[in-house]
Amino acid sequence: MLRAGLIWLSKQDWAERAARAGGVERFLVRRFVAGDTRHDALGVAQRLSQDDGELLGANAKFSFLGEEVTDPADAEQAVSEYCALAMAIGDTAELNARMGVKPTLLGLGISYETAERGLLTIVETASQNGVRVELDMEVSHTVDATLRLYRTAAAESELTGVALQSYLRRTPDDAQALIDEGIARVRLTKGAYSESSRIAHSGAGPIRRAYTGILEQLWQAGADVGVATHDPVLHAAARRLANDQSTIGYWEFQMLYGVRPELGAAMRSRGERLRMSIPYGARWYPYLMRRIAERPSNARFALRAIVGR
Fold first, then answer.
1. What string of DSSP letters covers the chain?
2. Which residues are part of the catalytic machinery?
3. What predicted TM-score, i.e. pTM, was given to this entire model?
């Protein structure tokens, strides 16, 4: 109930205005968001990769915040930002970094053609700079279009990937299709949107079982997999599968900046590969609300920040 309510709030303009007026950005956002600019995000990534902190050696995936744009000018601005980001990553030789892109930020809600045109522009610039572009997966009604976009991008460059959400009942079939096509470069997540039980699993047990099954499916095929979850149970399952599977391809753990940093520190202390997803930009509100919805401790942290305790 709390999770569904917070996700609903993430889409309400009045709630965003109230959050900004209440000073949430000043107290809370910087825990989960690198800053407003690509310079801020690059600085965070460089500290993770070079400094003496607990996450020393962690790689990065950058995301420019925003989604569900309806103005073509906003979509064009996002494309320009990602192209500039790709060039900045290319100029920073010590970074192992990728970019995550939301199709609705590129104008999928305007038209498929708008999003496709923007994505191919980004992929071209990113490929020239040796940067991988990964399509994020959003609400369920965009899955078919997102996979279509990914197939188009993958035909242009191998430096591409896509997220799949394990809680969707259709995902094993989607994963198998990508395996069969030889383009299974997958960031596997649980899923962060409120969906009907008709199309999505609910509850920790069913979602974990779905995640583990899809992970095994991908690894048996030798796919390129990002284990993108903060769930220690699934981390343990991934390690067991890695020890048992002889056909596994490249894999790494992936986590979100500011979420459960103690888990990331433990991974790095064991020498495990870790990539941190680093968001930046002024459109932080929907992203922040979903992070709060994912874990009760995030909600408690947010309330403490808002009331100044």
1. -HHHHHHHHTT-HHHHHHHHHTTHIIIIIHHH---SSHHHHHHHHHHHHHSSSTTTT-EEEEEE-------HHHHHHHHHHHHHHHHHHHT-TT--EEEEE-GGGGTTTT-HHHHHHHHHHHHHHHHHTT-EEEEPP-SGGGHHHHHHHHHHHHHH-SSEEEEEETTBTTHHHHHHHHHHHT--EEEEE---S---TTTB--SHHHHHHHHHHHHHHHHHTT-EEEEE---HHHHHHHHHHHHH-SS---EEEEEETTS-HHHHHHHHHTT--EEEEEEESS--HHHHHHHHHH-HHHHHHHHHHHHT-
2. 136, 187
3. 0.86
Tokens for 45, please give them.
């990534």
Per-residue pLDDT of 96-131, as tens digits, reads 999 999 999 999 999 999 999 999 999 999 999 999
**d(C-alpha 261, C-alpha 301), whole Å:** 14
